[in-house]
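Researcher: I'm preparing a figure for a lab meeting and need a structural model of a single chain. I don't have an experimental structure, so a prediction will have to do for now. The sequence is pasted below. Please return the structure as tokens so I can convert it later.
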Amino acid sequence: MTIPRLLVVDDDADMRSMMTQFLHQNGFVALPAASERDIRGHLDAGRIDLILLDVMLGDENGVEICGRLRAQQDVPIILVSALSADHQRMAGYEVGADDYIAKPFNPQLLLARVRAVLLRAQRTPSLAYRRRVSVFRFGGWVYDGKRNEIVSPEGFQVALSQRETALLKVMLANPHIPLTRDEIAAALDVTGEGDQPEASGRAIDVLVGRLRSKIEKNPKDPQMLRTERGTGYVFAIDVTVEDT
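Model: Understood. Here is the structure written out token by token.
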């Protein structure tokens, strides 16, 4: 499985460094951030599986940031704060936080809570494309999420099935990140393909083949939706996003 990618958001450089190093040592990819702008930059750049968000970020309020993110994202969020009164915890839960950890905390407790939230999330939110309607540009192609249209570099509209469109959205939201067949199947909510993991895996292979036949110049030598040996598939070109 792909290593979970965590975002550590704290305006205290020492705390940020301590938490990222600890998470690295325990098998996670931990990325630092200090502001809402940093958070959105990471979310636009690729997959994030969980956000550890400090409540007091200088002039910014982590609870308010959590509320804005939750309106647009399904990524799990754990609030971290020195404020531990019940009403303060409730404020965090009311805006959609998945958990709330009070400072100072035992690092092993933090680790356990992170793992528990990731387990509950079952990784699907980390692969879900953003709810906010966007235009994706990649390799001369344009996908308009509002109109649900995809246009080739030559200016021709290409018809995609509902399942092909869903696969494209997942890959566009996670460029350059290898995804396993199980991860893709979970994000697509594959049903009716059999109860065994092998059945879902075969269904994903067939679906990838169909999408390649429509967006690749040479489906037998794909340059965008490529096979990642030993893992699954990766969208191997840059993707730019325009919010509309």
